[in-house]
UniProtKB/TrEMBL annotation:
<dbReference type="InterPro" id="IPR009057">
    <property type="entry name" value="Homeodomain-like_sf"/>
</dbReference>
<feature type="domain" description="HTH araC/xylS-type">
    <location>
        <begin position="229"/>
        <end position="326"/>
    </location>
</feature>
<dbReference type="InterPro" id="IPR018060">
    <property type="entry name" value="HTH_AraC"/>
</dbReference>
<keyword id="KW-0805">Transcription regulation</keyword>
<keyword id="KW-0804">Transcription</keyword>
<dbReference type="GO" id="GO:0043565">
    <property type="term" value="F:sequence-specific DNA binding"/>
</dbReference>
<dbReference type="InterPro" id="IPR053142">
    <property type="entry name" value="PchR_regulatory_protein"/>
</dbReference>
<dbReference type="InterPro" id="IPR018062">
    <property type="entry name" value="HTH_AraC-typ_CS"/>
</dbReference>
<protein>
    <submittedName>
        <fullName>Transcriptional regulator, AraC family</fullName>
    </submittedName>
</protein>
<dbReference type="GO" id="GO:0003700">
    <property type="term" value="F:DNA-binding transcription factor activity"/>
</dbReference>
<dbReference type="Pfam" id="PF12833">
    <property type="entry name" value="HTH_18"/>
</dbReference>
<keyword id="KW-0238">DNA-binding</keyword>
């Protein structure tokens, strides 16, 4: 399996990446790539597992750039734009563009990759999981195409498939999984086993959305759906503030009853549970990776009383925040 990349960030050379068939690897393979040029500065961590290839980016974008990309095999990918955004434009206008905005993700199947990727945000933090039909068959079973029918039909007919036309906000549950993957502290064979299990969990969690991906859109009007996404962005950017239903209702332009009902249809949980999960995920990251004390983290995510924060944290994770490994 081969990927060809051409871009100014590579010095206008064509970069060729070779992979084992179906990404099958008996051993863990890792590679760190650092960049510091006129376009980008930062690093990309790549991890080759048995059946999957992970790319974790954390880069500063100095000025917009593009990458011409081709694959010699179909692309199966889970793509998470934790920060930043990306746009893929195929050379064949019959195929759809793939746009993933800030804080969103998508599941993709593209039989023939031949196009251009565009990046124009100031910072990109992403997780991309490339896999193959081999991984799906191995962990979900030979009949996965029947279970996840729309996805399965696209594979059978070799037609491009996007789980969501414009991506979907990264939920708190997915945030927890992404953090587990990116912050993995294991080494060697333990790391390989841990990451492979987490990738399967991540994939199954997303695939469970396949059968219901159009469900919420059928029940939530397009304008209301946009308002719900606006609320999601507001919540994520204001976890330190007091977030009330009344405030969110005014921002969304929806009455409180409609907001609560449609928010649950879109995200599968209540607004307050969603906010709590986001706060806990952010606090855990602040303590584990940024050196915050428990009191500092609790304040940063909107808790005035650290004891209340500690109780909520333990209810969610089953252990106290002071026990987080730094």
């Amino acid at each position: 399996m081969q990927t060809r990349l051409k871009s100014a960030i590579f010095g206008k050379k064509t970069l060729i990446r070779e992979y084992n068939e179906d990404f099958q690897n008996q051993d863990l393979k890792e590679r760190e790539i650092t960049y510091d040029n006129e376009y980008i500065r930062g690093k990309v961590d790549e991890v080759m597992l048995d059946g999957a290839h992970l790319s974790m980016r954390d880069i500063e974008v100095k000025k917009p750039y593009q990458v011409n990309v081709t694959h010699d095999s179909p692309l199966f990918k889970l793509h998470f734009e934790i920060q930043g955004s990306s746009l893929y434009v195929p050379n064949d206008s019959e195929n759809p563009n793939v746009s993933i905005p800030h804080g969103h993700y998508n599941l993709l199947f593209i039989p023939e990759v031949d196009g251009t990727l565009y990046f124009d945000t100031k910072h990109r933090k992403t997780l991309e999981v490339r896999f193959s039909e081999f991984l799906l068959t191995k962990h979900i079973g030979l009949k996965f195409k029947n279970v996840f029918k729309s996805f399965g039909d696209a594979i059978i007919k070799q037609k491009p498939y996007l789980l969501w036309k414009e991506g979907r906000p990264i939920s708190p549950k997915l945030c927890f999984l992404l953090n587990d993957i990116m912050d993995c502290g294991f080494q060697n064979i333990s790391k390989k086993a841990y990451l492979e299990a987490k990738i399967v969990e991540l994939l199954v969690t997303v695939l469970n959305e396949v059968s219901s991906s159009e469900y919420c859109k059928d029940l939530v009007p397009k304008d209301d759906y946009s308002s719900i996404l606006k609320i999601d962005a507001y919540i994520k950017n204001n976890l330190k503030k007091t977030l009330t239903i009344t405030t969110l209702s005014n921002i969304a332009g929806l009455n409180t009853s409609k907001l609560k009902k449609e928010f649950k249809l879109v995200f599968g949980t209540t607004i307050f549970k969603y906010i709590t999960e986001l706060r806990m995920a952010k606090a855990k990251d602040l303590i584990a990776n940024r050196g915050f004390t428990v009191s500092e983290a609790s304040y940063e995510v909107g808790y005035k009383n650290p004891q209340h924060f500690t109780a909520a944290f333990k209810r969610m994770f089953g252990y106290l925040p002071r026990n987080i490994k730094r």
